[in-house]
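sorry for the late reply, my laptop died twice this morning and i had to redo everyting from scratch. anyway the thing you sent over, i finally got around to it. pasting the sequence first so we're on the same page, its 510 residues, then the predicted structure underneath. double check i copied it right bc i was rushing
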Amino acid sequence: MRYARWSVFVGLMSALCACGTAGTDLPEQTRLPAPANLTIQTAGLSVTLSWEPVAGASSYLVYWAQAPTVTTTSGTQSRTSAPPYVHQASEFGATLAYVVIAVDDRGVPGRPSPVVTITPSGPDPEAPQNVRAIAGDRQVTLDWDLVEGATGYQVEVVSEFGKFSVPDPVMPPFVHSSLLNCAPTSNPACAGYQYRIRGQFGNSFGPWSSAVTAVPMPATPGSPVFTDVRARIVIVKTEANPIGTPQGAVQLSWSETEHAREYRIYVKTLPDGLEQQLSASDGSPLRENRYVHMPAQFGVTYAYRVEAINDGVASPRIDEGTESGRPLPPDESLAFVPVPHTPGAVYPYVIRGFDGSSESADIQVASIEPPDSPYARDLSWTPPTGGSLMGQRLYRAPTSTSPFELIATFADLTTSTYRDEVLAPNPAPTGLAVTLQNAEVLVSWSPISPARSGYRLYWWEQDGGGALRMGSTPVLATAYRYGELQSGVRYTFAVQVEGSPAVSHSLSVP
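ok and here's the structure:
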């Protein structure tokens, strides 16, 4: 009899253990039910898993594996407080499996959901376009247009020392530093450094770009040298016009000048505008070798001049001329702010080669409006040859009867394609959140996928007296920490995709 009672006890315990989850003694019927109606979708490499909330659940366990199926022992565990669950996949073309379990407020897991699977598939990878190699003093700066879906980029370098690839993925612009300069009297001429770029898509790579070459040169002592000037379109959002006003912007950069403690930038409109000094939004000295001039007017050509300053002494102005048989770059650089494209309109383009002081004859450029953006034009041409040409300049006319205006420069003679994209059709970011954390503000927003470029965060500071200061900064991620807050100042933030006409709503603190 004692043996029979012991057998019944053992049988009951075995039944409870067989149907329960390890670490609990609750019977099956008291457990939370399995999450129902699981849905799964992808946006690039981002996987979003959704399900109906389970009554009584305090959290959910998500198990995933890169395999046709998954179990609680074979999968990687994550916890989320509520649906949906967003998972970042590592590569296209690999199947991912997921299972979800609701957990009650005692920490007891419920029944598992059915397994759901998905295989993220991205667009056919494209080679990076508009690759530019900009020579500087002991360095070369590489820049290129972002490729849709790329999580990073690989750089290949070929020189007289051989071929190698930069080991870690990079984002544009990328500075290849600690190089050997080419001496002006080199015989034979310096071969320089040749570069190719390709996008990285998870664990796979896209095709290589066309090769570009640059030869590092010593900077002219005491004077900055422009390395890149590109006009683009941004949105300047003001309190007077909360929906945003389309304006132009010009991104400027120049080589660093030895012993310079700050830089001064001057601008004038052509042909006969008065020269004015530009300054940082907060009035502080400009110590970096880059600047964004905004807002700028559409259809206007601006001329810029930069001085390097040390203890109040400015660098000398460089006039057109030569030194040691090598053309000197001018200290003024021109940028035309293009008028936004009209869908369906045809614009004339030409390419001209230049040797630092003069240009070659016009070369006609083929123009096609791509199907994915009515605000862009895909251009192609045969690069100029002959003489002592050092680079190319791309010109566009707003109409068939208008004069040509400079819209891009290329510091090589190999570039033969370019996307002239004045307005990008990306929507405004959503989910803007502003959180005060001690002396900082954390600004975050939902990602735009796929975003063609990074984001631009706008900020406004307004003190109790009504004085308003504003500025912006490029951001590659979907969050930004804004620090050094001051008492009595109201801070307002908004965000957009770089080049997009749409701006998010604005939020303020305190």
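The radius of gyration is 29 Å.
thats about all i looked at so far, will dig more tmrw
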